Amino acid sequence: MRLFTAGDRRRRTRFSDRFRVGAVLVVLLLLEFYLVPSLVETKHGMPDFLILMLLLLAIREEPGVGALTGFIIGLVVDVLTPAHFGAGILANVLVGWGAAYGRGIFFADNILVNAGLFFIGTWVRDVLMLLFSGTPLRALPAEALLWAPLQSLSTAVVGVVIVVIFRDWLAIRIEA
Question: Is residue 175 part of a domain?
């Protein structure tokens, strides 16, 4: 007598995969909203765990789901920051869609590809936020060419650490 069918096993596996990804996302949320504010006054150069969440989710899904995820995270960003409302939504939607679409072009099985995705995704989102929020032209070069790459680099380093630590939970194969 069989207690579980193959479909039951697949359903349990999908549920446990979603639970594991959700647990990693909760860790990233805790880092973003509890650790970072308690460590530093300004966010210049600090890793952005929300964009890391967006990129980790977007490379697992289709472009539409990546854009929807970007919309939700962008809404959270817009509610929490004094920038023009809608700037975070638009920037995160574009990055989420682009990361999910790029998954079909670049296979994220290489740790350097993941690092590049985290760096480029964070930098593009930061530059789009600067442009959409009406940053003065005097401040744009310093923000886009100094602080945005610095934050992108720190986010990429933390992203690679997260991927290496939680690679089984995130179902990401890493080839050297």
Answer: no
Q: How many CA atoms lie within 13 A of 23 on its CB side?
A: 12
Q: Which of 106, 120, 27, 121 is nearest to 66 (CA)?
A: 121
Confirm whether 64 is domain-assigned.
yes
b/e map of 47-85 (b: 16 or more CB within 10 Å)? bbbbbbbbbbbbbbbebeebbbbbbbbbbbbbeeeebee
Domain that holds residue 101: 6-170
Task: Tell me the mean pLDDT in the region 137-166.
Answer: 92
pTM: 0.82
Q: Which helix (H) or strand (E) holds 45?
A: none
Residues 26, 43: Cα–Cα separation, whole Å: 20
Mean pLDDT of 32-57: 81
Tally of domains within the chain = 1
